[in-house]
Every structure is written in C-alpha cells, then in structure tokens.
Amino acid sequence: MLQIRPLQPEDSLSALTALLHRAYARLAALGLNYTAVDQDEATTARRVAGGHCLLAFWEGQLAGTVLLQPTYAQNDCAYFTRPGVAALHQFAVEPGLQGHGIGRALMQAGEDWARGQGFGELALDTAEPATHLVTLYQGLGYEPVSHVQWPGKVYRSVVMSKRLGALAA
C-alpha cells in the first residue's frame, strides 16, 4: 500500500539522505555528479527547508521523495524565476521498488501541490546524458524548454516544464 505525505519534523533526514544516495547511484555510475549522489545530511536539511518535501511510503517503509520549490526570486536557472513557475527537485524512488507506480504517484502529488498553490507550470531539470529520465519526464507530459549549466556539474541539464490545468473537482 502506498502513502504519500509531507515531510514531518520527526522524519529522519538521515534515512532520506540514504534513500537519495541509493536512488542516484545509477546516475553516479554514469559519471553524473548530481547533488543527491553524495550530499550530506546538512545539505538535505538545507534543500528541504526552502520547499515542500513529499515522502512516499510503501508498506510502511520510506520508498520515495520529491521536493517542490515555489518560484525562486533568483536562481542560476532563469526559467525557475519565471512568475507562476514552481520547480521540482530531488525526485527519487528506492531502486528495488521502481516499477510499482511510486514515482508517478509522487510526480502527480507534486503537480497537485503546485496547482493547489496557484502555480500554472511545474519545471524540473535533469542531465542531458540521463536519456532514460528525459524520456520518463516526456512520458509524464514535460517538454524541454531550456538548458542550464549548473556550477560544478560535469553535464549540461535540460530544463523541462509542464503546464498545469485546474485541480479536478
């Protein structure tokens, strides 16, 4: 059984950080130095502090996460500063549980949150060489809209966006 809920103060940032490391290991093996590959617990705390972090639990165990960020006042990626655009980051699903719909449910919950907060668009970025992720996001309705070269990253990212309709009644 799948449950998705916001991060609570009593949730373990250590467990969340470990999940990110496991989920991003495949990307690390491709030579892609995403922040979540090896971020420490303090970085996890800093990243979730400015946004809305959702956790997914599968049969009571932490199984996935996604972080939503309201429109940035300033950012190295200008697309994330556009009025009405929320950003989706730090998307991860426990590797052994991929294929159970957890990721799709997290993405949907993130889109629902963004709509509920009045955002008309949700944007994300991923490494261009991570073609499996680009394909996944395109299958979920995200379209390439820009590129960004993040400081310290060995890859260029493709910025993808999805227009959000009204919440279903």
UniProtKB/TrEMBL annotation:
The keyword Repeat does not apply. Residues 2-165 form the N-acetyltransferase domain. Keywords: Acyltransferase, Transferase. InterPro entries: Acyl_CoA_acyltransferase, Bact_Acetyltransf, GNAT_dom. This is GNAT family N-acetyltransferase. It comes from Roseateles flavus.
